[in-house]
Fold this sequence. Notes:
The chain has 5 helices and no strands. It has helices spanning 23-47, 53-89, 95-106, 112-137, 145-159.
Amino acid sequence: MKKQVKLYNVIFPFWMLMFWPTPPVILLTLFGNLAIDALVLYLALRALKVPDRGGVMKKAWWRVWLSGFLADVIGAAWLALGLFGAMALDANGIGWIGDFGMAMTVNPFRHPLALVWTAIGVAAAGVCIYFFDKRALKKCEGLDSRQRHIAALAMAIVTAPWLFFIPMYI
């Protein structure tokens, strides 16, 4: 007799939309990230009183934008690992693993482990953003090491994937 597996109420969280291959979602994600990354970088350079903001922006905007995507994918992979790992360990959705998996799909604030797991994903993406952007900004001659550090730190804090915390349902 075959074992029957049922998946009850499997709902993908909001952050999984970035993997949904529809043109409107992809375009919205691409241009939304571009606008936010460019704005945060520009404001960081302005706060640092960098004289050649335009030159730095011209040289770094696409590197910062692409590295932000890579960092977001790393954070999303961490979340997916938790979600699919919970589903694999507890296919029936019973017990604390099932509760963790359900919280990962709907609302990370429903389970302490889901909240911690999500926070680790956001933090990992933020750390990646910092190091990727610091490396991308090394190619800009108009910035010294302190300015690169502060601009990359601002990018990491502001553009970390905070949307991972948004619940699908309360």
